[in-house]
């Protein structure tokens, strides 16, 4: 009799164990889900910077009477045009609307460095409060005294050459949301039960959807990685899913991440 009781008890334990849910592969169920993302442009680490422009001056004979360059300052500041007039030239002042003219008078026989020196004197006289200007032979370097974004100087069609050495910018704190919606090709991870590490992964399709197939009944954890706006570190965003029935498709809660 005791042996029969023991056999029955063992059978009950085996039967109970066989019915226990155990997360993992090899089953007939699936988990589906959807991932959306917010993409931000962060610029809190930027610092104020001044625009730095270099102008390479050619010989006087290579500068046409009336040639000019557009010079700019940050929003709200004075806009200029640097124009070159022969001593006996006939071209009138361009008088560009909304801009202040800086006239450089020169002779077509002058060397590049001589014309550059004339331009330095003219800039300092008219726009000395907006630019710190230095000269190295035939190269003028203009540094905006005000920080912030500046539309680049433009030599238009003249023989004068302009090169932007540093783009002006303003420091901006915080972040700007530039897009939000389903994210494609994002890797999604699946953890079986209480396991510490993920067991498999898939990528989202063009609509941000994913699917894990061939799963047993049990408890699962879905996770993706997100970026912290405060310090740029990576954090884990997750949700829990339970498969209770064979041949079932379970929808996981949607996850939203920051890129």
Describe, in plain words, how this protein is organized in 3D.
By secondary structure, the chain is mainly beta. It folds into two domains: 21-42 and 175-258, Immunoglobulin-like; 52-166, no CATH class. Helices cover 13% and strands 43% of the residues. It has two helices and 16 strands. It has helices at 2-19, 112-127, and strands at residues 25-42, 52-56, 68-71, 80-86, 100-106, 131-136, 139-144, 161-166, 175-182, 187-192, 200-203, 209-215, 218-227, 234-243, 249-251, 255-258. The strands form four sheets. Strands 1, 9, 12, 15 and 16 form a five-stranded mixed beta sheet that branches. The chain has a four-stranded antiparallel beta sheet with strand order 6-7-2-8, with helices on one face. A four-stranded antiparallel beta sheet has the order 11-10-13-14, with no helix packed on it. The chain starts with a helix and ends with a strand. 21% of the residues are buried.
Q: Total domains, how many?
A: 2
Tally the beta strands. Answer: 16
Shape: rod-shaped
Order of helices and strands: HEEEEEHEEEEEEEEEEE
Largest sheet: 5 strands, mixed
How are the SSEs ordered, and which strands pair?
Layout: H1 2-19, E1 25-42, E2 52-56, E3 68-71, E4 80-86, E5 100-106, H2 112-127, E6 131-136, E7 139-144, E8 161-166, E9 175-182, E10 187-192, E11 200-203, E12 209-215, E13 218-227, E14 234-243, E15 249-251, E16 255-258
Parallel strand pairs: 1-15, 1-16, 4-5
Antiparallel strand pairs: 1-9, 1-12, 2-7, 2-8, 3-4, 6-7, 10-11, 10-13, 13-14
């Amino acid at each position: 009799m005791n042996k029969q009781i023991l056999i029955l008890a063992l059978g009950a334990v085996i039967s109970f164990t066989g019915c226990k849910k155990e997360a993992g592969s090899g089953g007939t169920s699936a988990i589906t889900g959807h991932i959306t993302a917010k993409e931000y442009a962060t610029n809190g680490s930027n610092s104020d910077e001044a625009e730095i422009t270099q102008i390479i001056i050619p010989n006087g004979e290579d500068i046409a009477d009336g040639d000019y360059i557009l010079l700019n300052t940050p929003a709200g500041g004075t806009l200029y045009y640097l124009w070159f007039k022969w001593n006996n030239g006939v071209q009138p002042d361009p008088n560009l609307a909304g801009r202040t003219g800086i006239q450089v008078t020169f002779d077509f026989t002058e060397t590049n460095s001589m014309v550059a020196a004339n331009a330095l004197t003219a800039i300092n006289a008219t726009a000395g409060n907006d630019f710190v200007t230095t000269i190295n032979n035939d190269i003028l370097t203009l540094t905006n005294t005000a920080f912030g974004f500046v539309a680049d100087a433009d030599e238009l069609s003249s023989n004068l050459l302009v090169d932007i050495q540093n783009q002006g910018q303003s420091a901006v704190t915080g972040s700007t949301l530039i897009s939000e919606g389903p994210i494609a090709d994002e890797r999604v991870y699946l953890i079986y039960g209480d396991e510490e590490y993920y067991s498999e992964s898939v990528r989202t399709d063009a609509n941000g959807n994913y699917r894990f197939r061939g799963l047993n009944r049990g408890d699962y954890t879905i996770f993706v990685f997100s970026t912290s706006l405060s310090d740029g570190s990576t954090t884990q965003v997750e949700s829990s899913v339970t498969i209770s029935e064979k041949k079932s498709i379970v929808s996981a809660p949607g996850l939203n991440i920051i890129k």
